[in-house]
Amino acid sequence: MQLATWNVNSLKVRLPQVLQWLESSQVDVLCLQETKLTDDKFPVAEIEAAGYQVAYTGQKTYNGVAILSKLPLADVVKNNPRFEDAQQRIISATIGGMRIVCAYIPNGQEVGSDKYQYKLRWLDALHDWLADEVKGYPNLALLGDYNIAPEDGDVYDPVEWQGMVLCSDAERAAFQRLCALPMKDAFRLFPQAEKLYSWWDYRQMNFRRNRGLRIDHILLTPPLAARCTACEIDKLPRKWEQPSDHTPVIATLSA
DNA sequence: ATGGCCTCGGTTCGAGGA
């Protein structure tokens, strides 16, 4: 069983890459962020033709999330029921005995800005909601674009990024509070090579220079972490024509 | 020193992303 997350930066533009990746990757569950599509424009037929059921919630221009699954999706919930939010950033479903939560955590733009305050409030509300969700769903996975690099080792140049948005103490503390629910960062369950990232700015040839950040994550509650046998970042789609600036992260779970 | 790319909406530029 493989679970994956991928910020596609417009599903309208990226649908061919998503379908190509699904053909080769064999993932069972794929969480997408930044679909940037209203629900009436969602490419349901193409995704079903690829062998996946899908749940989605979107809006015009910004945000938008979806869960693709080979197995049936049940009990779909859109957004955080405890946080009034016009922005479509969360969708959850039960799949094969697991509660899958797909999240597009706000970017925050700049430390101290209104968007940064919104990000911290949003993360607080996510934490408080999930604290109850994990009681009802011991097998819960939170996959998505967290817009947080948890540690300096997740940043190509920690000095340049020190205190900046995605790396600030308050954001990292929010990440640690999610880990204390408790949940485990699947990527850090295993020895990993250095300088592995999930996002690279389109500018400055940052991908070729591997100037990236690891901001896309899979957090697993202890029963799922115990079943996790691998967690990998697949850099290949970032090398394709017209790529997303993010690349998929995959966790493998034993039966 | 500055901005450097991509997407969208909707027009040829500004906002947002990270």
What does this 3D model show about the protein?
The protein starts with a strand and ends with a strand. Helices cover 25% and strands 26% of the residues. The model has no long low-confidence stretch (mean pLDDT 97). It is built from 6 helices and 14 strands. A 6-stranded mixed beta sheet has the order 3-4-2-1-14-13. A 6-stranded mixed beta sheet has the order 5-6-7-8-12-9. The chain has helices at 11-25, 44-49, 114-136, 158-161, 169-179, 222-227, and strands at 2-7, 29-33, 53-57, 65-69, 74-78, 90-95, 98-104, 140-145, 184-185, 199-200, 212-213, 216-220, 228-233, 249-253. With 255 residues, it is of the alpha+beta class.
What quaternary form is this?
single chain
- Percentage of helical residues? 25-40%
Please give the alpha-carbon distance between the first and last residues. Answer: 7 Å
Lateral strand order in the biggest sheet: 3-4-2-1-14-13
- Could you say which structural class the secondary elements and strand pairing correspond to? alpha+beta
Beta content comes to: 25-35%
Give the total of beta strands: 14
Order of helices and strands: EHEHEEEEEHEHHEEEEHEE
How large is the radius of gyration? 17 Å
Number of helices: 6
| Apparent shape | globular
Q: Whole-number average pLDDT?
A: 97
The biggest sheet amounts to: 6 strands, mixed
Spans of at least 5 consecutive residues whose pLDDT stays below 50 are none
